[in-house]
Amino acid sequence: MAGPSDGDHSRILNHVLVPPAGEFQLDPVHTFVSFTVQHLVAGRVRARFETVQETVTVAEDISASTLEVSIDTASLTTLNPIRDADLRSEHFLDVEHYPTMTYRSTTVSALPDAAGLVPGELTLHGVTRPVELTVRFGGSLIDPSGNIRVAFRAHGTIARRDFGLTYEIVKEAGALLVGKDVTIDIDAEAIRPQ
Length: 194
Fold this sequence. Notes:
By secondary structure, the chain is mainly β. The chain is built from 1 helix and 14 strands; from the N terminus they run E-E-E-E-E-E-E-E-H-E-E-E-E-E-E.
């Protein structure tokens, strides 16, 4: 495996490229937290949360690293105002009563191909459940402002019923209007001041 390039502060531990140690704050301009859910039988709907706060603390021992994410549920958008209002309503996210969802990692373990498994706890709709994310480190560099910038991609799946999101609309043919499983995708950049 090739080592870090010039200007890259990444480290290689056990033949895996990992980020430099330190505390990183999310760059909201270059971060996308989204989810995908099945619509009827064949289609999918994608949504994005526009207001997200995240702290990534990378420890010298990668397994001791932590991830904390806080999301404003009302910041959801599917680019369809009618659908967005429904998703924010008491039928689904109920943002009036549950304005924030959070994710806190419990540990980090390495997987093949430079990926990591990040078990944690997701609190959504007033319910806290264990959720695992597969995280890939995209690299690091010094940005034009002189800060260390790192990139991550994370992916996971939850069952919405596990979080009390049980509202169902069944069409005449018997198909659910909204799928039972929700796929979560995070593309994030985070910054550590030098």
